[in-house]
Complex I-MNLL (Manduca sexta), 57 residues
Amino acid sequence: MAIFGITTRFAWVALPMSGFFIGKYLDDQETLRMTNFRDKSALYGGNVKEGDPPSWP
């Protein structure tokens, strides 16, 4: 039985997929936020010269 076009088959596929994409979006936003601190840590920074690529993407 479908309520507003939502069937049980849709729920079994769409709900886990939407959770995956929401989690991926949040993880990408966290990675983007953490790039502000890349190579600036005293513990992990090392000696990166100006113009060199960062130590991690």
User: Anything to note?
Assistant: The helical segments are 8-34. The chain has a mean pLDDT of 84. Residues 14 and 34 are 30 Å apart (CA to CA).
